[in-house]
Design brief:
The protein is of the alpha/beta class. The chain has 2 domains: about 220 residues, Rossmann fold, CATH 3.40.50; about 70 residues, Alpha-Beta Plaits (2-Layer Sandwich), CATH 3.30.70. The protein has 11 helices and 14 strands. Helix 3 packs parallel to helix 5 and helix 5 packs parallel to helix 6. The radius of gyration is 25 Å and the shape is elongated. The structure holds adenosine-5'-diphosphate. Adenosine-5'-diphosphate (ADP) binds next to strand 2 and helix 1.
Length: about 325
């Protein structure tokens, strides 16, 4: 449904994206994840026909974004990062305007306005001036304009940026409710957001795609070792030395912030939890907690985009 083939864009002599290739199939919800400046908005602006690439091809529904931009635009609902709205208009007037831009008139306009107002939960604020609304409601209005005329593809650029935690939850729920009806490409620098909403993640860094997979597979593929966290009562440093020499253990870290906490990195192929628990008991220590730690998408992202391994705890 969305295709990027070798997309490259230079701003002057600066390459913002280089040879970006990916596809989003019909019905998929894909996250476009990367730190600020990675090139997400640049790729999105090309896909939404706002500017041509320096090289490469962008297509939506098999139609070239550059050669047939009007046809592509009619298939896309786009929520740009800064959500440009006319603050002096009421929600109704603005949505009527959006419907007009999308070529609707008469009864079709009224029907579509009623539909998007209901989908986005805007009934209460329908006749209010946009400038007087909270940021959360403004974002709903932005989504509503993207949904007018029911486009098959939604492209949402950082849809929760600048919102407070409650508003973020509301907007994420709203996007989740749209998953059944639309193919969605959602850009974000917030990792849990993408993991929560998307079936698949494209990770972009410094203008290039560095990984693509489901949030779950990315975790298991990239998790080179398993990490076991345990908390014990008693002399911890000797235990750390004993565990470090145990077969299958790669590294043991004693936490400085959390007394009695040990992080044990082990070979992924073996579950060493029972052996570790036995070692603790054998040394006459009390085992307060023992659990397998999942690498978060955030950890994986750091593994992918940083050359140096990231260590939060200091080995003693
Ligand atoms: P993201 O959306 O991931 O934050 P952008 O696509 O906005 O990334 O930016 C990618 C790179 O291109 C950055 O280095 C940014 O400074 C640069 N850039 C973005 N827009 C412009 C522009 N209009 N002119 C010059 N450089 C730009």
């Amino acid at each position: 449904m969305i295709e990027a083939q070798g997309l490259t864009k230079f701003y002057g002599s600066l390459p913002a994206i280089r040879d970006v290739t990916f596809r989003v199939d019909q019905g998929e919800v894909v996250g476009f994840l990367g730190p600020n400046g990675a090139g997400k908005s640049t790729a999105i602006r090309i896909l939404t026909c706002y500017m041509p690439p320096t090289a490469g091809i962008a297509k939506v529904d098999g139609i070239d974004c550059f050669a047939s931009s009007l046809q592509v635009r009619s298939r896309i609902g786009y929520l740009p990062e800064n959500n440009p709205l006319y603050n002096d208009l009421t929600v109704s007037r603005f949505l009527r305007f959006a419907a007009g831009v999308k070529g609707l008139s008469g009864k079709n306009t009224t029907r579509e306005m009623d539909r998007v107002v209901a989908v986005c939960g805007l009934e209460k604020v329908r006749h209010r001036i946009i400038g007087h609304l909270s940021k959360g409601y403004k974002q709903r209005v932005g989504l509503a304009q993207a949904l007018v005329n029911n486009p098959p593809v939604l492209i949402l650029d950082e849809p929760t940026i600048g919102l407070d935690p409650t508003q973020i939850i509301e907007i994420r729920k709203l996007i989740q409710s749209l998953r059944e009806q639309h193919t969605i490409l959602l850009s974000s620098h917030i990792l849990p957001e993408v993991a929560q909403i998307c079936q698949r993640v494209l990770i972009i860094n410094k203008g290039q795609i560095v990984a693509t997979d489901t949030p779950g597979n990315l975790t298991s593929q990239l998790q080179k070792s398993a990490q076991i966290s345990l908390k014990v009562e008693g002399e911890i440093n000797q235990l750390a030395a004993v565990l470090e020499s145990h077969e299958g253990v790669q590294k043991v870290t004693v936490s400085r912030e959390d007394a009695g906490r040990l992080l044990v990195e082990t070979d992924r192929s073996r579950d060493l939890r029972p052996e570790i628990a036995r070692k603790v008991i054998e040394r006459g220590l009390s085992l307060l907690e023992l659990k397998l730690v999942d690498l978060s998408l955030e950890d994986i992202f750091l593994q992918l985009v940083t050359e140096e391994p990231v260590q939060e705890e200091t080995q003693s």
